[in-house]
Amino acid sequence: MAADAGVRVHPGARRAGPLRSDGRDPGDHVPALPLRHLRVGAYISYESVFAQAARTLTANGAQVLAHLSNDAWFEGTVGKAQHFQMGRLRAIETGRYVLRASNTGISGVIDPLGRVTFQLPDGERAAGRAAFALRTGLTTFVRWGDWPVLVAALLWAGLACSGYLLNTGGRYDQRTAP
Question: Mind spelling out the 3-state secondary structure of the chain?
């Protein structure tokens, strides 16, 4: 089985030690799950915080993302809404619909542009029908990850430094220093 560097184990799970006898952490390869005519990228709870989980699933062929979560530990906080908002980010980053089901939080469907197309109220027990489309193709983020942003930041920093040097002639003046 090929190792996938994109898998992130919840910090609490590391303290418990390896859960398999062969020393590998669970989830060292993340395939999209075949389900009849579609390929689902399923991730759970805390994994929604990390873009890498959805990115890896999409790169491995997921046509739609399914996020399952138990948000009971967020009771009485804004955590449930924040957790739902993470789905909006994952949808935009991957160009996939996100189908989110939570037993105690907010369940709904988010389109690839981050728009909520269906939503059940916080904690409501219900079932609903919502349309979604299977998507293929990879976004720049899925292909390249954070590299374009890092390169842009370095270019910006380089331009800012060169502009400073051009304006000052490379001289340091203590009178104008902060």
Answer: CCCCCCCCCCHHHHHHCCCCCCCCCCCCCCCCEEECCEEEEEEEHHHHHCHHHHHHHHHCCCCEEEEEECCHHHCCCCHHHHHHHHHHHHHHHHCCCEEEEECCCCEEEECCCCCEEEEECCCCCCCCCCCCCCCCCCCHHHHHCCHHHHHHHHHHHHHHHHHHHHHHCCCCCCCCCC
